[in-house]
């Protein structure tokens, strides 16, 4: 068996999601090659070469891959991937964007968002917003898989010494073009990597009130998340949405503030170790999954919490 | 320009699904079914493109047994012009769906194909991208804004780090995210009108596509349940518990 794993990065550093995907690859077993495709991403290849369990790094360094467009990455990975038994990527918005193209080009199925490796061809994955867990067996010769980061513990970032091989193939579609991006700037930890997350919902009432959450977050070194309702209402940007169709988080501590606990929200956070709910409605479904519930007005609680920490 | 919208019949999003006692699958008997919410957003976007004069015709297609006609009628009531059902006994895998849609695309030659980014039952998030690869079309997935221009479309995408905008040559694929629009409700007169709109039925065999599955469903289990914990009286007790009992701060 041989596995091609596509690294997630920003051309400067390797994303932690890659180390978690590597853990899934190690459970499948076999030789693991990591593809670093990007522009000016030599440093990322060097980091990938040090990650535990990697036997070779393939470096495709070309402007065509700089913005990770699915058309170009899909063609490249399908071309390289035909010689492997498994192709893996993190189930991030980048992985979700190009991996199904790879599967279709290779005429195989994709197994999305796996949460466990049962054997080299059998995996578990959540369906119906995590209200059921399916065990599926992929029978295609090449298994194309995306991996849910919260379900795997990252492998060591250092200690390995893989060789780096340059890939010259350039796939550059003239049908898709990068125009621009607006990336969120934050000093706080990244939502999916933070050990503490505090999220606000519709109960926050507006975007300014999120400062109350941020002050608590700063005391805890926490990331700040939100429910769909808070994002839809324009309180905060889309990259903060936790849930079935947003980001999946599983921190040591998740604090839900003014969030009712719809199944779509629970799907994104119910694997957190400890859940705290702050809600003025004692009937709110969020209390059914909370280890510690506080029935109170969030506008009273948040300043007190900031003080107490 | 013609717009093709692919839609899926799924469990209503308010319903919490249950697993069958024999763990063979989830139990959908007597469960309320609906148009997948992301597909509803896709239909709405296509109808708006028509209202704005960008689209000339909106065609909706769904794959599955006869029951999917109900969701096609819903899409027609929301403003689509005509519908196609590709009849299959069961719901095929995403790749087979993408191949069936590829065959429909070859017949209909749309300039834009809009799909939901994911169906809330299988949560796969793959069909649109697969269709893109099979047809050689570029894709704008997880769209929160779509701007059609002459020969191209500009799509703003919701990505993990924020927003990304891409420009795609037509014909192209768009998959919808939650912020793209807020779908309208179908009015009673439109629901009545939808009953008379054309709905063609074709079979997977007519389209020459093999829909055999390559992923076997071995088992479906209920997830580990979390039980409710305790209620604390105030912030002081909460902080004390988090420090000394849960030891997470
Ligand atoms: C296709 C689809 C996908 C979806 N994906 C997601 C997703 O990924 N993530 C997600 O979160 N949702 C998602 N949803 C939406 C989900 O169904 C809920 O609508 C949403 O999670 C509700 O957000 P909320 O809890 O903030 O708002 P509400 O349900 O309105 O709850 C607000 C809560 O705040 C409390 N509150 C109000 N004021 C105060 C106060 N002063 N002090 C204390 N408490 C207060 C109220 O008691 C209430 O419980 C999705 C829905 C669909 C249809």
TrEMBL record, chain B:
Needed cofactors: AMP
Gene Ontology terms: biological process: carboxylic acid catabolic process
Signal peptide residues on this chain, from the entry's feature table: none
Pfam families: ETF
Keywords: Electron transport, Transport
Residue ranges annotated for the Electron transfer flavoprotein alpha/beta-subunit N-terminal domain, each copy included: 23-211
Keyword Flavoprotein: no
CDD domains: ETF_beta (cd01714)
InterPro entries: ET-Flavoprotein_bsu_CS, ETF_a/b_N, ETF_b, ETF_beta_N, Rossmann-like_a/b/a_fold
GO MF, one example: electron transfer activity
Membership in a protein family: Belongs to the ETF beta-subunit/FixA family.
Function: The electron transfer flavoprotein serves as a specific electron acceptor for other dehydrogenases. It transfers the electrons to the main respiratory chain via ETF-ubiquinone oxidoreductase (ETF dehydrogenase).
Assembly, per entry: Heterodimer of an alpha and a beta subunit.
Name of this protein: Electron transfer flavoprotein subunit beta
